[in-house]
Design a protein that fits this description.
The complex is a heterotrimer of chains A (about 230), B (about 230) and C (about 230). Chain A has about 230 residues and is an alpha+beta fold. Helix content of chain A is about 15%, strand content about 45%. Chain A contains four helices and 16 strands. In chain A, the strands form two sheets. In chain A, strands 3, 5, 6, 8, 9, 10, 11, 12, 13, 14, 15 and 16 form a twelve-stranded antiparallel beta sheet that branches. Chain A has a four-stranded antiparallel beta sheet with strand order 1-2-7-4, with no helix packed on it. The relative contact order of chain A is 0.16. Chain B has a single domain, classed as Double-stranded beta-helix (4-Layer Sandwich), CATH 3.60.160.10. Chain C has one domain: 4-Layer Sandwich (Double-stranded beta-helix), CATH 3.60.160. Chain C is about 5% helix and about 45% strand. In chain C, strands 9, 11, 12, 14, 15, 16 and 17 form a seven-stranded antiparallel beta sheet that branches. The radius of gyration of chain C is 19 Å and the shape is globular. Classes of the chains: A alpha+beta (about 230), B mainly beta (about 230), C mainly beta (about 230). Chains in contact: A-B, A-C, B-C. At the A-B interface, strand 4, strand 5 and helix 4 of A face strand 16, strand 19 and helix 2 of B.
Amino acid sequence: MQVQIDHQPSFAWLKVQLDPGEVIQAEAGAMVTMTPGLPMSTRLNSGRGGIVRKFMAFFVALVRKFIGGETFFVNRFGGQSGGEVVLAPALSGDISQITMTPATPPIIIQTGAYLASTGDIDTKLRWGGLRGLFGGEGLFFLECSGNGELFINSYGGIIKVQCNGSYIVDTGHIVAFDADLNFKIKTPGGGMLGFLGSGEGLVMEFRGQGTIYMQSRNVSALVGWVSPMLPM
Amino acid sequence: MEIEVKYRPAHSLGVVRLGAGESITAEAGAMVTMNDQVQASTAARAGGKGGLLKSLKRSFLTGESFFTNKFTGTGAGGEVTLAASLCGDMAVHDLVSGEELMIQSTSYVASDSSIDLDTQWQGFKAFFSGESFFFLKCAGQGQVAMSAFGGMEVVELDGDMIVDTGHLVAFTSGINYRTTKPGGSWLQAFFSGEGIVLHVSGKGKLYLQTRNPSEYGSLVGTKLPPREG
Amino acid sequence: MQTEMLQRPDFGILKVIFETPGETILCESGAMVSRSTELKMKTSMRGGILAAAKRKLLGGESIFQNTFTSTAPGQEIYIAASPEGDIESMTLAAGEEFYLQSGAYLASDSSVTLDTKFGGFKGFFGPGMFLVKMVGPGTFWFNSYGALHPVDVNGVFTCDNDHVVGFSPGLDYNVRAFGGMKGLFFSGEALVCEFRGQGRLYAQTRRGPNLAAFLHPFRPVKQSNND
């Protein structure tokens, strides 16, 4: 399999050349172009696991499909014949490749950040906590582990920071982080006025040692910016 | 006439330098700045052939008509800058006589005023989203500026390719397309998120954009406050 | 403090590294991306309550601003605007002024002042678009939707209204309708700003109302109460 990320850093897309027998899995709707006849199948991204996980994933996927937003359906490209497929996310921004091995620690990603993966990567749906509800950022995270390549997309460019003790990130700007990090979802600070008026959404306060991937733009902020300009 | 594209690929601006008497036709609303050696004409509805004004639906869902402005240089150093609505790239295609360029209507930015713009309805409707895609046909000699939502990818096609409909910007004559479904079934077409796709074949230049406006619109749009029905 | 502007012009983001305790940066509310936990954060209303309320009512940007103060060296903060676009900094000498479209203000140091009571704009700049006056001494950062396109005006120059980001006081300006486009385009009249004189103009290569018009059909439809 050969992969190439072009049009970085602002409108990155992922070009994949598949040999016969090779497969890549991608978020539903991500296909831009593909070789005619390349086998494509659709299934739920419920990762490994039993019927309960599949049911939960299906329910959430259906809800999200109808209310809009990332679904958990994935397409698998490739099979007997090889071919080329090009994948792209919906938002402007970058794509990063993360190599996962059984030795590397699991990584937690925002569900919207999942673009594609190869090999044997397990994706577990994790509940972000009720407070995530009020932030409007989405309730779920995906915990990824295993063996293979993981491709994540960001809204805007990606900035990697090392948490060395403690670090605060606005929830809408989080792409991914090491699963080893502890985190708490909090109000941004500055007191009560701070919460109501600061304009910030909720923040995540990380504690521990690990890598955090941030994105330089935030969909909620975009919504806030564009809403006053909308016609009735 | 010279067209220089600045701030690629995300926030492209077409800087057009016009000599005295040179004209560029641009989509209405594309002008950003203009110096004092340029005259702008009133907006005209781009017409089809045979004198009958056929308005081309520019926007998928609002069905707005396609209007253009004409900018003419009045001195030696006329400059007008043009931009598309959404973020993204811009490319200039040098059209030669005998060749035709089919541009997806929302990607058209501007063209040398001597180029013939056929706004006759040609296109198709996507199955699930109900969007309509319309193409503009350009013929003649001169420069055509097109915008991409995302980055612009130029493919020298010789063969065939499946292309997600929202990613098609333009193609030269010699390339044909037909609509098809991506996998085996319509159910899969729905769940796969792809809907209808295009099977593109032939030999020529294919312009693609690396982002899909409707996918972007749906993702952000559903988070916006509701509107009156 | 050390400042660095990254990812220009596509997704401009400001990185600030504080060098000593007690250093301050002010920013537009909602602009913080991330920060060291130990930074002190204070939220206040910008420009006084009346000016703020007026701006908010007319659909402008937020009325709040955040002040971040360092408590130790090496602390950092990342600040970014909401739309996709560019950022730039400007340092003004004492008394030097610059007019900025209010939505373009991103951040500033503690010495520059933002005059919001400055009401002096002629003509209509569009919903929620006010001019604010930045007065030195000090440094401020501003952002755009799209890339920033600087123009050194010397004579007469026209810029579409919604593409104006900021300009120096030496320029005279006049807002007028752009011939022949009455009622056609998106939200209505196309307005242009005609500048005369000598000075610097910053234009942006995209306009907000276009994005709003594009997204409008994708909005959920209000459910009526009586079916």
